[in-house]
Amino acid sequence: MDFEPPSESARLQLLERTALFGGLEPAVLGTLLPHFEPLSLAGGQTLCRRGDPADAVYVVCSGSLGAFGPGHTSQRERLLGLIGPGQTVGELGVLARSPRAATVRALRDCTLLRLADGERVLQLMASHPQALARTLAELLGRFQGREQAELLNPARTFALLPAVEQLPLRRSAGALVDALARWGSVLLVDSALGQGRDAAWHDQREREHRFVVYLADGDAGWRQRCIRQADQFLLLADAAATPCAWPDAVCRSGADVLHRSRHLLLLGAAGEPRAQAATHWLRGFEGPLAWHHLRHAGDWQRLARLLARQATGLVLSGGGARGFSHLGVVRALRELGIPIDAVGGTSIGAIVGAGVACEWDDDTLLDSMREAFVAGHPLRDLTLPLIALTRGKRATRLLRKAFGERRIEDLALPFFCVSANLSAGRADVHTRGLLWKWLRAGAAIPGILPPLLDRGMVHVDGAVLNNLPTDVMHDLGIGRVIAVDISVEDALPAGFEDAALPTLPRLTWDWLHGRQWPSLFAILERSALVHDYTSSQLRRGLASHLLTPPHAAAGLLNWKEEYRHSIASAYDYTLRYFERQRDAGQAR
After folding, report:
1. pLDDT attached to residue 92
2. Which among 147, 360, 465, 585 could bridge 427 via Cys, Cβ 3.0 to 4.6 Å?
């Protein structure tokens, strides 16, 4: 990549803004300046890899770098943070004499300054403790941000790219700019303003504003310039239109997806999102791609929160009949004005979450849950227990009745649910496909409901492997998570000691006189919820707010008793929880 290295004065000003070098006297910076080597990276090019020796410190002049590492519970690579102009890379490894902690790549075309003499950095820190103090404060802030699941810097530049010229591009750009403005200053750069400008001009605009939206409203050359300048791609399409091949190969192929994420923006009319619109458009893309149904101002505001890393995700655990507690939590969050920008869950939590993602109001949520689980008796179709105690037909019919033929892609809010794939020995995360089908898979309590068989795989209740999937929500890029854990914390009681069942007459006699074995239903349900303690605690720790509403009187499979009390108790508990959070914040 051809580039013009920054002048000596520009390099000096850049170093003065950094935490690592900004505390040094001008004379010291002047002697250090000749040792910095100009460097350029094309978008997608790797600067260093995790585990490499820390042999240099870098200063970002222009562009944007991304730090990548393994996910919370898997080795799948995820974005840890963004590094922009005026920030440094690699100082921790040099100071600690340790290998690189993350892989760093250019998200778009970048220019940097490279100081290859690590020993010189150590000597500077030893002789200038004020610079060391600033650097340590900067590093501490980064670590605190990572512990709170916040990126070092959210994405700053976006390319708004229409599928065809006939789309209301200018109106859409205005809605996006208005929504983003809540989180910082926004500059809209269209072809009239930006075409023909050099890299220094674009870099200066990005320094002056929190967000820059590049509007691809000109010729092919300007459209390519928008793509080169963007941290993320916003792909604008009409939900009602027949999908066409996306005009930009870099957006279509997904080859750049780890470096610059893609968002498909589907413009639609008020009401429910158009059925299968996302499904049809998604077929034209390869690799991971987020999609958003945009029908009114509220949808644009949700998109802005997601782009600005200010979104709130709701994660709902499994827990049988105690899932009615989720309804009380959702009602309280809505009354408190806390937005739910994405939702996911396991088992009964996924079923409630699907209703939230459908934008059902509180009454509709309650009516649907009551019809499906109280009046519907989903476990009443008992059968010869060769595979499970029930046939699963009633549960399937009730889910299909509640959600129809909706696909996950059709939901108004981003949604996922989790099933345990026994064939592959993993937890599967479902973000596409028939909603009822994957809700049925993720609620198949082993031994009680038969598994769902799909493409040679056997799927059962997701609680077997991941009952509180906060890690999934984080790996989807949402750092602020409200998690509701209604899983069983009380032990399955045994009032006496025994190792074998007595004869049926004796068992009946004991039962009539209060000497009861745990029921088969209770044993199977409890077994599905006893997951690895360490992983469970890790997932709880990933929650920004962990809610554990009381459910002492609610049984795991007792759908009729106490469900109204569970809703009311969870509602009151959630209001009190956030009132305490507010008071603690005011006190601080």
Report:
1. 77
2. 465
CA distance linking residue 81 with residue 411, whole number of Å: 29
Q: Give SS3 for 32.
A: helix
Structure tokens at 340: 């739910």
Determine the 3-state secondary structure of 256 from DSSP.
coil
CA atoms within 13 A on the CB side of 450: 16
Distance of CA 454 to the CA centre of its chain: 26
Cβ neighbours of residue 360 closer than 8 Å, sequence gap 6 or more: 368
Q: Please name the amino acid found at residue 48.
A: C
The count of C-alpha atoms lying within 13 angstroms of the C-alpha of 136, restricted to the half-sphere facing its C-beta, is 9
**C-alpha closest to that of 73 among 529, 432, 429:** 429
Residues in the chain: 588
Structure confidence at residue 131 (pLDDT): 60
Torsion of CA 342, 345, 351, 353, to 10 degrees: -20
List the catalytic residues.
347, 461
**432 Rama sector, left if φ>0, alpha if ψ -120 to 50, beta otherwise:** beta
Residue 170 has what pLDDT? 97
Residue 567 token pair: 């809703």
Count CA atoms closer than 13 A to 110's CA, side-chain side. Answer: 31
Spacing of C-alpha 588 from chain mean position: 28
Question: What pLDDT was estimated at residue 150?
Answer: 44
| Burial state string for 463-485 with b = 16 or more CB within 10 A and e = fewer than 16 | bbbbbbbbbbbbbbbbbbbbbbb
Residue 148 pLDDT: 43
Question: What is the pLDDT at residue 77?
Answer: 74
Helix (H), strand (E) at residue 523 = helix 520-529
Tokens standing for 159? 């390319």
Position 147 scores a pLDDT of 43
Residues 122, 124, 125, 127, CA torsion sign = positive
pTM for the model = 0.82
Q: What is the predicted pLDDT for the residue at 151? A: 44
In angstroms and rounded to an integer, the radius of gyration of the C-alpha atoms of the chain is 27
Residues of the chain whose pLDDT is less than 50?
A: 146-152
Burial of 334 (0-12, 13-18, 19+ CB in 10 A): middle
H, E, C per residue of 58-82: EEEEECCEEEEEECCCCCCEEEEEE
Helices (H), 498-562: 504-512, 520-529, 533-541
State whether the Cα torsion 370-373-374-377 is positive or negative. Answer: positive
- Report the alpha-carbon distance of residue 402 to residue 559 in Å, rounded: 17
